[in-house]
């Protein structure tokens, strides 16, 4: 059975008109006249034998049939745009969408990502950051790198490495810290995760600090560390993620005491089999971790 031919221009005119609920604004977007858009939509309606819009004095009202067609058109045009982008330059390019907790992205992934791009030039990595709260389906992510215990509903999680927390501060502030108990007299910067300092003080054998010493609560370890660099207090953060600041002398780790509260994990939806680009990224990531930490990851 031969399927009916549907003109691409008419489909594009419908999709733009449905988004704007206006032939005029659709025409502006498509760089054609209002009359041309109206004509194309009319041709499509005649071809389908149904009305997609109700024409009103001030704009358009989409019909139930139009509502049903719109998401299909959006998906089709998005897929075409994605494929054309992959074919740009005469080579098939794959896009890999990775979300990473900001601390991991800046402190660990970015310094190494050029090596992945050099070895996989036809995989375009699109990196976004989050504060450990992320909806992979809504954001269209292939992978999300998170910090925690690895238990996320509906997700396949692969442990990358531990990230124990330590007290970090400026060298100047560290001169007043002879023992862990001295921290109970300092401003303690903290993340949105509760009781991290309590765990650290327990590991140090020190009573929990008074509430007045607890400073600003941050939703990002990056912002918390910037506050620590500026001398606003002592941060509790994973030294592995702030190696650059430590090696540069901006901050120091006055005590070797660490609180192990979680690991970094590579996660993906269980319902989504890994594509070739995903497999390549995961293999590269695990290889980088092995070279960096060996069996101590």
CATH topology of the largest domain: D-Maltodextrin-Binding Protein, domain 2
CATH architecture of the largest domain, by name, is 3-Layer(aba) Sandwich
Largest sheet: 5 strands, mixed
Radius of gyration: 27 Å
**N-to-C SSE series?**
HHHEEHEHEHEEEHEHEHEHEH
In percent, how helical is the residue content?
Answer: 40-55%
Roughly how many Å apart are the termini? 59 Å
Name of the CATH superfamily of the largest domain: Periplasmic binding protein-like II
- By CATH reckoning, the class of the largest domain would read Alpha Beta
Derived structural class = alpha/beta
Strand order of the largest sheet: 4-3-5-11-6
Molecular shape:
elongated
List the total number of helices. 11
Low-confidence stretches: none
Beta-strand segment tally: 11
**Mean pLDDT over the full residue set:** 89
Overall number of domains: 3
Structure in words:
- It is a single chain.
- This protein has 297 residues and is an alpha/beta fold.
- It has three domains: 81 residues, Orthogonal Bundle (Arc Repressor Mutant, subunit A), CATH 1.10.10; 104 residues, 3-Layer(aba) Sandwich (D-Maltodextrin-Binding Protein, domain 2); 82 residues, Periplasmic binding protein-like II (D-Maltodextrin-Binding Protein, domain 2, 3-Layer(aba) Sandwich), CATH 3.40.190.10.
- Helix content is 43%, strand content 20%.
- It is built from eleven helices and eleven strands.
- The strands form four sheets. A five-stranded mixed β-sheet has the order 4-3-5-11-6. A two-stranded antiparallel sheet has the order 1-2. A two-stranded antiparallel sheet has the order 7-10.
- Helix 1 crosses helix 2, helix 1 crosses helix 4 and helix 2 packs across helix 3.
- The radius of gyration is 27 Å and the shape is elongated.
């Amino acid at each position: 059975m031969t399927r009916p031919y549907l003109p691409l221009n008419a489909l594009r005119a419908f999709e733009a008109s449905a988004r704007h609920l206006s032939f005029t604004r659709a025409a502006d977007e498509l760089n054609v006249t209002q009359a041309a858009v109206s004509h194309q939509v009319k041709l499509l309606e005649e071809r389908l034998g149904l009305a997609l819009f109700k024409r009103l004095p001030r704009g358009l009202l989409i019909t139930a049939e139009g509502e049903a067609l719109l998401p299909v058109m959006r998906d089709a045009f998005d897929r075409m745009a994605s494929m054309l982008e992959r074919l740009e330059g005469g080579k098939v390019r794959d896009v890999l969408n990775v979300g990473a907790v900001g601390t991991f992205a800046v402190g660990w992934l970015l310094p190494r990502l050029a090596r992945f791009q050099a070895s996989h030039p036809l995989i375009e990595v699109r990196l976004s950051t989050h504060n450990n709260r992320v909806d992979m389906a809504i954001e269209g992510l292939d992978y999300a790198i998170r910090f925690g215990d690895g238990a996320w509903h509906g997700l396949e999680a692969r442990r990358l490495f531990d990230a124990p927390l330590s007290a970090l501060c400026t060298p100047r502030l560290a001169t007043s810290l002879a023992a862990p108990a001295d921290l109970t007299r300092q401003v303690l910067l903290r993340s949105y995760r509760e009781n991290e300092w309590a765990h650290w003080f327990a590991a140090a054998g020190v009573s929990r600090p008074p509430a007045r010493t607890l400073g600003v609560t941050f939703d990002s370890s990056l912002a918390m560390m910037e506050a620590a660099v500026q001398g606003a207090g002592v941060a509790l953060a994973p030294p592995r993620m702030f190696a650059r600041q430590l090696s540069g002398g901006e901050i120091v780790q006055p005590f070797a005491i660490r609180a192990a509260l979680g690991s970094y994990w590579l996660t993906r939806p269980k319902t989504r089999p890994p594509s070739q680009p995903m497999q390549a990224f995961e293999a590269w990531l695990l290889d980088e971790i092995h070279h960096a930490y060996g069996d101590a990851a």
